[in-house]
Design a protein that fits this description.
By secondary structure, the protein is mainly α. It contains 5 helices and no strands.
Length: 119
């Protein structure tokens, strides 16, 4: 469970960096709509917060944490696939897919299932 929590925490940190980059590009560039760009930053920050909360929950083996992590991994997996293959940015998308696969793997181990079956 600790490795899954570590990977989800890494995803939260990476998502926070993405929010910072989008904010920087919004403030220094000329977006079509500043309001929409800032709304995107807020949306990404909410995702980072959700990932960070879930990482903490996984670390404590909280019963509520596993479901949201799986849902977020499905969303991140779709994002990684589109980025890697449809947007032709494999250097960005493939690490996301690898991290998603790692989290799903660590959540599917017998130890993780046993930890949650006692709850």
């Amino acid at each position: 469970m600790r490795l899954a929590a570590l990977l989800v925490g890494l995803e939260a940190a990476a998502t926070l960096v993405v929010a910072g980059v989008v904010l920087w590009l919004t403030l220094t560039g000329d977006p079509d709509s500043v309001g929409r760009a800032l709304a995107e930053v807020v949306y990404v920050l909410l995702g980072a917060g959700a990932l960070a909360a879930c990482a903490g929950g996984l670390r404590r083996v909280a019963g509520w944490a596993r479901g949201p992590v799986v849902v977020l991994q499905v969303l991140l997996g779709a994002l990684g696939y589109v980025t890697a293959f449809e947007a032709d940015r494999p250097l960005l998308g493939l690490p996301v897919l690898a991290c998603v696969a790692g989290v799903c793997w660590f959540l599917a181990t017998p130890e993780a299932r046993l930890a949650y079956s006692d709850r």
